[in-house]
């Protein structure tokens, strides 16, 4: 069984502060090999530590509540009736709770087949809360193979943004190797950038460069949010250009023999990795609220390996 090391401690406390449910955190830990009782102890210990530091959490929640609309006002009213520590934790949770996030229209076109620049993409599944769409045929098998072969010899161990500093750290929450491509860096990449922008119905300029990730057997990416947490000092470095991330498309470049699904633990949903298919999810609405139900991860690869290509889309032009 794994240990609750520094990486797990950081994962636990950041997810508690963001308002993830205890059950979703326990479930994610059990998926990563913890016994259920050990996961439960770790989660509840972190929840206890967090209510001790509730004053700073309360400040974040209060500023979120005062900046937002009627829904947040109701949250603040509820919080004021509870005791100090639990009110603070409760307000922080409610500020990011699913019921306060307003689901406005997803920008992706309707229909079962979407013409995306130069290719017809099939829609397999749409979920409204969180906003998730599963596609088939985003890339052809040849395009998937070409992307893998171009990337295979250029991979470097993946990093994760340190929320305190904004720097990229190698930590055990993300056991994969990756490489970034510049937007439009050659005709092949440019075609994929345009196809994906058309599918996501967002300007090509708002997309970050494509990222390729490779996970070996046992590789995983523990549940996280793709947006930069607004309450963390390190996020400003990343949002200075292009603003917040609003949506993600993860394209699967190979069939994974076992495991490696993209999981949404708070929604009880998982998407299997199938070559050329993709999962789209949107987590920022037109009011700039962030959806806590978009918590997601890459489940451990149980057999074989896994290649994905990711496009993150910003609020405004990026780069
Ligand atoms: O590998 C995945 O399925 C995955 C899941 C969640 C990748 C990412 N997030 C990511 O790169 O952000
Ligand atoms: Zn992600």
TrEMBL record:
Q: Keyword 4Fe-4S: yes or no? A: no
Question: In which domain of life is the source organism classified?
Answer: Bacteria
Gene3D superfamilies to which the protein is assigned, alphabetical: q2cbj1_9rhob like domain
Q: Which UniProt keywords apply?
A: Dioxygenase, Iron, Metal-binding, Oxidoreductase, Vitamin C
Which GO terms of the molecular function aspect are on file? iron ion binding; L-ascorbic acid binding; procollagen-proline 4-dioxygenase activity
> Domain Fe2OG dioxygenase, which positions?
206-315
InterPro entries in the record? Oxoglu/Fe-dep_dioxygenase_dom (IPR005123), P4HA-like (IPR045054), Pro_4_hyd_alph (IPR006620), Pro_4_hyd_alph_FE2OG_OXY (IPR044862)
Could you tell me which Pfam families the record lists for this protein?
A: 2OG-FeII_Oxy_3
Q: Does the keyword Ubl conjugation apply?
A: no
The identity of this protein, by name, is: Procollagen-proline, 2-oxoglutarate-4-dioxygenase
- Annotated coiled-coil positions are none
Q: Which cofactor does it need?
A: L-ascorbate
């Amino acid at each position: 069984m794994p240990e609750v090391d520094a990486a797990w401690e950081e994962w636990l406390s950041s997810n508690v502060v963001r308002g993830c449910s205890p059950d979703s955190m326990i479930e994610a830990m059990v998926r990563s090999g913890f016994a259920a009782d050990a996961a439960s102890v770790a989660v509840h210990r972190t929840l206890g530590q967090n209510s001790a530091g509730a004053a700073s959490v309360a400040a974040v929640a209060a500023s979120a509540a005062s900046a937002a609309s009627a829904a947040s006002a109701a949250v603040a009213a509820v919080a004021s009736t509870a005791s100090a520590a639990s009110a603070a934790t409760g307000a922080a949770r409610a500020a990011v709770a699913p019921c306060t996030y307003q689901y406005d229209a997803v920008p992706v076109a309707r229909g079962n087949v979407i013409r995306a620049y130069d290719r017809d993409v099939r829609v397999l599944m749409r979920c409204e809360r969180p906003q998730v769409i599963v596609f088939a045929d985003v890339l052809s098998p040849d395009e998937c193979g070409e992307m893998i072969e171009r990337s295979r010899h250029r991979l470097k161990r993946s990093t994760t943004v340190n929320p305190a500093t904004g720097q990229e750290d190698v930590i055990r929450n993300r056991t994969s190797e990756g490489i970034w491509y510049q937007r439009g860096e050659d005709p092949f990449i440019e075609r994929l950038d345009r196809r994906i922008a058309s599918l996501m119905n967002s300007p090509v300029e708002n997309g970050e460069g494509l990222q390729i990730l490779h996970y070996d057997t046992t590789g995983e990416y523990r549940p996280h949010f793709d947006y930069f947490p607004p309450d963390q000092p390190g996020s400003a470095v990343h949002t200075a250009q292009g603003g917040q991330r609003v949506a993600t498309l993860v394209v699967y470049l190979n069939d994974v023999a076992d495991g490696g699904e993209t999981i949404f633990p708070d929604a009880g949903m998982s998407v299997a990795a199938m070559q050329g298919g993709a999962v789209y999810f949107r987590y920022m609405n037109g009011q700039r609220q962030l959806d806590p139900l978009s918590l997601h991860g890459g489940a451990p690869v149980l057999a074989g390996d896994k290649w994905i290509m990711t496009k993150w889309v910003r609020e405004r032009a990026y780069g």
